[in-house]
Amino acid sequence: MDYTFYMLPLSVFKDAVYGSDDEGSFVELFGRKMRRFHIVGSIAAMEMNSESGSGYIIVDDTFSSVLVHFQSSMFRTVENLQKGDLVEVLGDVDTYNESITLSMQNIRGIDLSRYSFNKLESIKNLQAISK
């Protein structure tokens, strides 16, 4: 499996084509199958189930948003975050109710300068792969 991840703006999920094959789920964009994404945004909403140790957050970058679900291995980390916090997330492509989602592999809170840097990088990356 290709473990390459792509730092791109959340808006790519709006028009992306979702698919799956023997290697798992992917988003096809500009003729490339992308399976992992590194995204940045703020937590717009969160739902946690302490009994199962799972839940989801909605990450928003003011232009778009994506649902990111997590399992028990990430519960303690997410538990320390709050609605409105700036975060960067590494996740694998998944779907829920026919919408593209991410399955969280890692998350961390970031400051405004890190958010701004990553946001600019994601836009540059989108321009680079669209050629």
Fill in the keyword field for this structure.
131 residues; alpha+beta; OB fold (Dihydrolipoamide Acetyltransferase, E2P); five-stranded mixed beta barrel; three-stranded antiparallel sheet
Helix content: 10-25%
Q: If you average the pLDDT, what whole number results? A: 90
**How big a fraction of the residues is strand?**
over 45%
Discrete helix count: 3
Using only CA atoms, what is the Rg? 14 Å
**Strand order within the widest beta sheet:** 5-6-7-9-8
Quote the distance from N terminus to C terminus.
25 Å
Q: From the 3D coordinates, which CATH architecture would you assign?
A: Beta Barrel
Low-confidence stretches: none
- Major sheet characteristics: 5 strands, mixed, barrel
Number of domains: 1
Shape: globular
Structural class: alpha+beta
The ordered string of helix (H) and strand (E) elements is: EHEEEEEEHEEH
CATH topology: OB fold (Dihydrolipoamide Acetyltransferase, E2P)
CATH class: Mainly Beta
Strand count = 9
Describe the model.
- Strand 8 and strand 9 form a beta hairpin.
- The model has no long low-confidence stretch (mean pLDDT about 90).
- It is globular, with a radius of gyration of 14 Å.
- The protein is an alpha+beta fold and about 130 residues long.
- About 25% of the residues lie in helices and about 50% in strands.
- It has helices spanning about 10-15, 70-80, 110-130, and strands spanning about 5, 15-20, 25-30, 30-35, 35-50, 55-60, 65-70, 85-95, 100-110.
- The protein has a single domain (about 5-130), classed as Nucleic acid-binding proteins (OB fold (Dihydrolipoamide Acetyltransferase, E2P)), CATH 2.40.50.
